[in-house]
C-alpha cells in the first residue's frame, strides 16, 4: 500500500463452524515451562477450545507475570487452570485418563495416535523438553513426535506444538 493510502478492515463477524467440541475436555500439560508468552499463547488456545491447562512447577515465571497475561490477553478468566508443585503430584491427582508425551525422542508420529476426549497431551520445557526420567517411564507408543526437517531446525515452538497436536486430536474426535 502507498504511504497515503488507508487500509480498510472488514466488519465481518466470526463465523460459527459446524464443529463439535468434546463434552469431556482435552488436557494440555506444560512441564516446567519457562517462556511466559508461550504459556500465554497456550492458555489462549485452551480458552478457545474449552481444554484444561495444567502447569507443572517450577515455572520460569510468575503466573501473574505481565508477559503471560499479555500473551493470553483477556482469556485467562476462561481458562480451566491447574498448577502442581511437581510431576508426581500431577500424576497422583490425574491418575485416570490417557497420557501422551511429546518429544523429539518419540518414535511414533503424533497423528498415528487415536486421541479420545479427556486425553492428556504433555509437553516439556521450551529449551530441553521433557526430562529423560519422565520419557523413560512411559510406554513407547505414548511418546509421540511431530515430524520436522532435521536439517533446518531442532524443534518447533512449544505453543505451536500444543496447537498442532490439540487440533489433530479434536479433528479425530470430531470425525
From TrEMBL:
A Pfam family this chain is assigned to: SpoU_methylase
Annotated EC: 2.1.1.207
Alphabetized GO MF terms: methyltransferase activity
Record-annotated tRNA/rRNA methyltransferase SpoU type domain positions: 26-167
Location of this chain's protein in the cell: Cytoplasm
Protein's UniProt keywords contain Cytoplasm: yes
SUPFAM superfamilies on file: alpha/beta knot
Domain of life where this protein originates: Bacteria
Signal peptide positions (record): none
Keywords assigned: Cytoplasm, Methyltransferase, S-adenosyl-L-methionine, Transferase, tRNA processing
Entry keyword S-adenosyl-L-methionine: yes
Reactions catalysed, as given in the entry: 5-carboxymethylaminomethyluridine(34) in tRNA(Leu) + S-adenosyl-L-methionine = 5-carboxymethylaminomethyl-2'-O-methyluridine(34) in tRNA(Leu) + S-adenosyl-L-homocysteine + H(+); cytidine(34) in tRNA + S-adenosyl-L-methionine = 2'-O-methylcytidine(34) in tRNA + S-adenosyl-L-homocysteine + H(+)
Record-linked InterPro entries: Alpha/beta_knot_MTases, SpoU_MeTrfase, TrmL, tRNA_m1G_MTases_N
GO BP: methylation
Main location: cytoplasm
EC main group: transferase
Residues that coordinate or bind S-adenosyl-L-methionine: 124, 146, 155
Function, as annotated: Could methylate the ribose at the nucleotide 34 wobble position in tRNA.
Recorded family membership: Belongs to the class IV-like SAM-binding methyltransferase superfamily. RNA methyltransferase TrmH family. TrmL subfamily.
Name of this protein: Putative tRNA (cytidine(34)-2'-O)-methyltransferase
Native source species: Pontiella agarivorans
Amino acid at each position: 500500500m502507498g504511504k497515503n493510502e488507508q487500509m480498510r478492515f472488514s466488519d465481518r463477524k466470526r463465523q460459527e463452524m459446524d464443529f463439535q467440541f468434546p463434552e469431556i475436555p482435552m488436557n494440555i500439560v506444560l512441564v516446567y515451562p519457562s517462556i511466559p508468552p508461550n504459556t500465554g499463547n497456550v492458555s489462549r488456545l485452551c480458552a478457545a477450545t474449552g481444554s484444561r491447562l495444567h502447569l507443572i512447577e517450577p515455572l520460569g515465571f510468575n503466573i501473574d507475570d505481565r508477559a503471560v497475561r499479555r500473551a493470553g490477553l483477556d482469556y485467562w478468566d476462561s481458562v480451566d487452570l491447574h498448577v502442581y508443585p511437581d510431576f508426581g503430584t500431577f500424576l497422583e491427582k490425574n491418575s485416570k485418563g490417557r497420557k501422551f508425551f511429546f518429544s523429539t525422542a518419540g518414535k511414533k508420529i503424533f497423528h498415528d495416535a487415536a486421541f479420545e476426549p479427556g486425553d492428556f497431551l504433555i509437553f516439556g520445557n521450551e529449551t530441553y523438553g521433557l526430562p529423560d526420567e519422565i520419557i523413560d517411564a512411559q510406554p513407547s507408543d505414548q511418546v509421540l513426535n511431530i515430524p520436522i526437517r532435521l536439517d533446518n531446525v531442532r524443534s518447533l515452538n512449544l505453543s505451536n506444538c500444543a496447537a498442532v497436536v490439540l487440533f489433530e486430536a479434536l479433528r479425530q474426535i470430531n470425525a
